[in-house]
Design brief:
The chain is an all-alpha fold. The protein contains eleven helices and no strands. It has helices spanning 3-29, 35-44, 49-56, 66-78, 90-94, 103-114, 130-144, 150-176, 181-194, 196-199, 201-206. The longest helix has 27 residues, at 3-29.
Length: 209
């Protein structure tokens, strides 16, 4: 019995599940804050205090009351008379024409269909909403535990969508609401992706397979 191989597999499994948990937090942070989302954040945010401090060098911004959070989310990402200051869609940010439902959306739709998942149509969000991309990434990380070849798909999601999108997205939120909860949240999400090779080295080393 090759105990080293078993230990490596166990470490890889634990790392992928840890990565999935972090990605799921980012997805929740960037989802519209209804009562269910706020309750979930109240429970999980304290568990990430140490990681937040390590990545950003400061403590988390406290979770505001639900009504304030909803107003802030809507003004930043959904509807604003002066124009949405932080557009949360991959197609708008990464494609030359800057349109929703562009090539990036179609590519993500195909990837999700291959995994037999899709967005909740009742929410009215396209597949390339950054919160949904994080949610899909978390799913791929979980499924990679039993199917290592899915690591390649997850790596593609990081390199093609999350890594190029997040710096500009986080900067826009910080400019619009410098001391707000969502500026802190998007900075955390961006730092997590920027440092994923150090935080999750086995995932990074397996990306070529």
């Amino acid at each position: 019995m090759n105990t080293m191989s078993i230990e490596t597999d166990n470490c890889r499994r634990d790392e992928l599940l840890s990565l999935a948990t972090c990605l799921r937090l980012c997805a929740t942070l960037l989802r519209y804050p209804d009562q269910t989302v706020c309750t979930a954040l109240e429970s999980v945010l304290p568990l990430f205090g140490a990681l937040h401090l390590a990545l950003l060098g400061r403590s988390q911004v406290p979770l505001p009351p639900l009504e304030y959070l909803q107003v802030s989310y809507t003004a930043l990402f959904v509807a604003n008379p002066a124009g949405i200051p932080a557009v949360p869609y991959v197609s708008c940010r990464l494609e030359p024409n800057g349109q929703v439902y562009g090539a990036a959306t179609m590519a993500l739709r195909k990837m999700m269909a291959e995994e037999e998942v899709g967005p909740d149509r009742s929410l009215g969000e396209p597949e390339d909403h950054v919160g949904l991309v994080f949610d899909f990434a978390a799913l791929l990380a979980e499924r990679s535990v039993g199917t290592p070849k899915k690591i390649r798909e997850l790596w593609h999601l990081f390199e093609t969508y999350l890594t190029p999108l997040l710096p500009g997205f986080a900067a826009d939120v910080a400019q619009a609401e410098p001391a707000g909860f969502y500026a802190d949240a998007t900075a955390f999400c961006n730092a997590l992706i920027e440092n994923h090779t150090e935080l999750f080295p086995l995932f990074a080393n397996q990306s070529e397979y």
